[in-house]
Specification:
The protein is an alpha+beta fold. It contains six helices and five strands. The structure holds zinc ion (2 copies). Keywords: DNA-binding, Repressor, Transcription, Transcription regulation, Zinc.
Length: about 150
């Protein structure tokens, strides 16, 4: 884990502790995995990756952990067109997910985004459960294919 990720990891665990969430070994593992992940894994992918180390962990446990992280605003879920799978993303660094509507490839776009959740709560009084940061389009590969065909 690099220094920045280590910091994110400590912050998340600290935040969960103050919320009274029990910090289990699997919670630590799922949290570390999503923070270190360079792409956007599904719950199934996280489950498969952690299974050798945590053989007693279930897929439901992974989902449950992701749900807690989502509720606290650390993780967002990503839906890709024509794909039933839900992908997950750690939102530690400010970025937008740019999704190809054809092949489902997800790219990260680094951009300073205002704290939408916080701003929305301030301005509307809603208690915000989640906010999506997603842009849809056609990736460079699919653009090339379109020209060829
Ligand atoms: Zn594409
Ligand atoms: Zn992302």
């Amino acid at each position: 884990m690099n220094e920045q990720n280590k910091q994110h990891y400590q912050e998340v665990l600290e935040h969960l502790r103050t919320k009274g969430v029990r910090i289990t070994e699997t919670r630590k593992a799922v949290t570390a995995f999503i923070i270190n992940s360079h792409d956007h894994p599904s719950a199934e992918m996280i489950y498969q990756a952690l299974l050798p180390q945590y053989p007693s962990m279930s897929l439901a446990t992974v989902y449950n952990n992701l749900k807690v992280l989502m509720e606290e605003g650390f993780v967002s879920e990503i839906k890709v067109p024509n794909d039933m799978t839900t992908y997950f993303d750690f939102m530690g660094h400010q970025h937008l997910n740019v999704i190809c509507e054809k092949c489902g490839r997800i790219a990260d776009m680094d951009i300073d985004i205002p704290d939408v959740k916080h701003e929305a709560e301030l301005q509307t009084g809603y208690r915000i459960a989640k906010s999506q940061r997603t842009v849809y389009g056609l990736c460079p590969q699919c653009q090339k294919k379109q020209v060829l065909s």
